[in-house]
Amino acid sequence: MSKHFITDPKTLVKDSLCGLALSNPHLVLDEAQKVIYPKNLSAVRQKQVTLFCGGGSGHEPAHAGFVGPGMLTASVSGHVFASPTSSQVLSCLRRIYSTDHGSLVIIKNYTGDVLNFGRAVERFKSERVNAGKPPPHVAMVVVDDDVGVVNPNDDAEGGVGRRGLAGTVLVYKVAGAMANAGGKLGAVKEMAEYTVSHTFTIGCALNAASVPGIGMPRSLADNEMEIGMGIHNEPGFETKPIEPASVLVPSLVRHIVDSLPFKKASGGKTGRVVLLVNNLGATSNIEMGLVTKLATEATRDAGFDPVRVFSGTYMTGLAMPGISITLTLVPDGEHGAKFLALVDQPAFCSGWTNHTHVEDTGCTDEAAQGPTTHTTPARDARWESVISTSYHNVVAAEPQVTHLDQVMGDGDCGQVLLSGATAIFEASSQLPLNDPPAALARISSLVEDAMGGTSGIIYCLFLDGLAQQLHHVDSSALTPRVWGKAMLGALDTLYMYTTARPGHRTLIDALEPFASTLESTGSLSQALDAATKGAAATAHMLPKRGRAVYVQQKENLADAGAVGLVSVLKGIVSALQ
After folding, report:
1. How distant, in Å, are the alpha carbons of 61, 513, 517 from that of 521?
2. Cβ(471)–Cβ(437) below 8 Å
3. Is 392 considered catalytic here?
4. Which of the following is catalytic: 232, 355, 357, 392?
């Protein structure tokens, strides 16, 4: 999608950084150089090794969102997908350099970043020496965790190497924690270099990302995905038809584990890893949860123990619909414990979510299950006929109900009702049909599991109330009038939890006339006629409840829920007469 919330592409990066600083009171923005740093920078420089990272914008929250205690001291941003200039980087380095402790520069392996940050470091060294000061203690680490595009000849040819991706965040998480704990520059750099050499990432996208002010650089077909797409829309190594997540995610994990860089670092042995699942910008949270589950399982299946699992939005490609998976090998023994302690050390910045650790004091699974209810299935030809006839009526009515809901709602009413009817029909032989209250309670549970949504819970509340009303009534005394009175009592239960009433254009407009007429006349046919007229009357009512409230009344069509209920009631009456 090429739509954006934007005022001027030329000022977008600066404006976005202003927003970050305004919403994070500990941060300050140097607008001219696009540098984010903390308000207590002077104290930080006196206390510890300072660290900064940077690069092109469009990867938020990276890198500015990770400035704060326990992670980065500063960040510097270029234009969207473009490295900051060496002058910007130099300004940042001058600002954050710690004379007492030194500074570490962390960058991703892209040519523009390497050249501009490298030149800034050299310029800083020169100006310090030319000013008669000792050579500064500045080190630089380049992150190249991408295993989606690997050139096996890079080592021999001295090529550009692998790209830097979301693993960069783990690098400055660990390095920032060590610096915050008082680590010396050499030790901080060594820990960062270990993390770089033992971190591996692969990405997958369903499409490229639109660039503000420019639009889509290229597009995949609706049924395609690309493995290895870069965070700047660079082509990956394979475009193929979209696969189920249960196939895709394990294949991505396997690609990492089978890659030459990973095998070289692991020595072909299994062990513990940190798993980071990253949202590339436009993947929904519910999908991220699924991907995280599958990635964790696939990591274990590959023989590795994911002792820490992180999932969220860490390094994006603007609003790219995709994910990346990162595995970092944890050292063995005592070194592993120290490494994980750095991973676990809290960081206080907008882009990082600290894990919450609590003591495992046991669970309450048994209490959550509630009391066990035992019912014995009992066949009853009459009630089985009621269920069967109602089910087939709903099957026949579903297209009409769906159409009505498509016009005035979200279009799922017919399918939801059919799901409930199907569940009851398929379970009819297992219901205690000789015990109406128990059967109704069981049917309510079936409806809850099958239907969901607002209509489902309305049916459930009504059925629960009806079961309670009939609990002390002998089966032989269940005349139509008794059923009608019980239904009115069930409506009172329902009214405790909904403000929907007759005249509000809902299924209540069919249910209440049926119940009241049945209670007053004892006639099933008259009750059905009242329900049918009530449903038809909704065509001329102004919606006052449900999603239809937000939609302009169209074509004088009846309420889908009321029409659907009438199809059920017709089945009941037809089978009982």
Report:
1. 68, 12, 6
2. yes
3. no
4. 232
